[in-house]
Structure formats: structure tokens, C-alpha cells
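Input record (one chain):
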Amino acid sequence: MQSERAQTAMSDDEAGEGPLAELQERHRKEKKELREKIQNMKKAAKCGNKAKQKETTAEIERLEKEQTDRHKKEIEQMTVSVQQQQGSSEPAAADNSTATSNAELETYFYKELQVSNKNKKRQEKKNAMAKRLEDAAKMDKVTSKTSSRTLEIEQIVQVLKQRGLQMHSVRSDGDCLYNSIAFALTNDGETISTSKVRQRAADYIRQNKDDFLPFLEDESENPLDESQFNDYCSKVEKECAVGGVWGGEPELRAIANSFHRKIEVIQPTSQVVPYGEEFNEKQPLQIVFLRHFCALGEHYNATEPYREEEQQEEGEE
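The corresponding structure, as predicted from the sequence alone:
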């Protein structure tokens, strides 16, 4: 019975929509980013001694376990939420029954939705992206007080305050990474537009293809071929409103190297992920990475010096 309810609840997500589809998409992106990070860690460890390599291996195992445990917990939480939305009033069954239901949902979640998500992405056009952004903005207003979002903002506000910073919100329009970098550079005296930041990132990736190609994958997680690589670079160059792609770890590496600036990505857990560590002549560009800030999922925000008299509007973008 629980299995039937779980599959019924998944019906809205078969077309690649709904909270389960969004969670699955976020998990895939996080796994890809972690793989890229691990590759960089392994490259760096090769230059060190055996002790450094052993330390790196242990850190990789920790990161992988941390991500696996968190993903499992989020799936379980989503299972409960889905069942509650179905209006189930039946008492919880034995632990074995619950575990079976969760396992069934997880199997369906990652295997059945993979095909539908891939088909949906192929069909996604410019007008679909515009609609998605519009719906996300509406959803953000409705869910601005949800616990995960509120907790995350409270955490990052405190982390930034300790560093003498406060958050400066940029639009959650798919260009948030590039908007944040443009704001940081402009604040540092180098006036630049979001489109120019995208162009610089795309140019650097094209010019250093061998450094990036091993870490780039298509929607089916297969390595990009020559044609796909060129198409990817074109999408990095375009803003999301006209068919561009969101930015992540590869693009951050490209931006850091193109501008010869160290970038620090600050997270609510106090973790700081650096890019371009060799560029130390100037103060690093500091931006924020959030997982629950908006309905589209992950979001980058800019930072600026902390001012006691200005309280950040936590729910605004």
C-alpha cells in the first residue's frame, strides 16, 4: 500500500517537475561537482609526499560519505513529505515496512526519473526557461519563511558577520554566479557587466580545453565530444534568458584564472572553497553559495562590507 502511494505521489514528477524531480536534479549536480573537486584534490596530492596523499584520500572518503549520508536523509525526508501530501492517515507500519517503502521510492526516484528528466531537458527551449524563472519567483514569495531557507540564511548571516561582511542579494535568474562576480569586481574598482564575465569564462575554457574537457559531461553523464564542448562554451557565454547555462565549479575555475583573482565561496557551514589560490596580489573576491535560497535550488549571492545600520532583507532577491 505504501509503495502504491509513493508511486502515485511520483506521478507529478514523471514529466520532470515537482519537488522530487528538483531534488534529484540537485543531487546529480552536487555529485558532479564533488567528482570535479575530487579530481582537483587528487591532482594536487600528486605533487606532495605520501603523508599528503594519505591525508587527501581520507578527506575524499569523508566528503563522499558526508554527501551520501546527506542525500539519503533528504530522500527520506522527501518520502515523509510526499506521503503527508497524499493525505495518508494510516498509522506507521513496522520499521521494516518503512525501510522497504523508502528503498522503493529511492529506486524509482533515481532510475525512473532519469529517463523522463533527460527527455524533458532535450525539449526545454528558451520560453520554457523564462516560464520556469517566473514560476520560481512566485514560489519564492510563498516559501520565503520555510524552515530550511530561513535556517540557511540565519547561518550565513552569522558566518559573514564574523568575517566583517554581509550578503548582497542578486537576482535568481540563472546568472547568479556571474552577477555575484560582476558585483564583487565592480565593488573592487573593476567595473564589468555580467555578460562580460560570462564571455571571459567561456574564452578561457575554450583556450584551455584539455584542462576542462575531462570534467565536463552531458545530461547522461557521458564525456563531451568536440561538438558538445563547443556548444557548452557557447552556452557559458550566453545569459540564461537567451539559452545560457548556470555556472558552477568549472566556471569558477575559469573566472579565477581569466581575471587572475582568487575567489572564495563561503557556505552556511562556515566552509570556504577557494579558486585561484595562486593569485594573492589582491584581496579575494568573496561570494556566497546557498542550497535553499530560491525555488530553482542552488544560488550564489554577492557580499559587501558589514554595516550595522543596514539589516539585510532576508526574503528579497
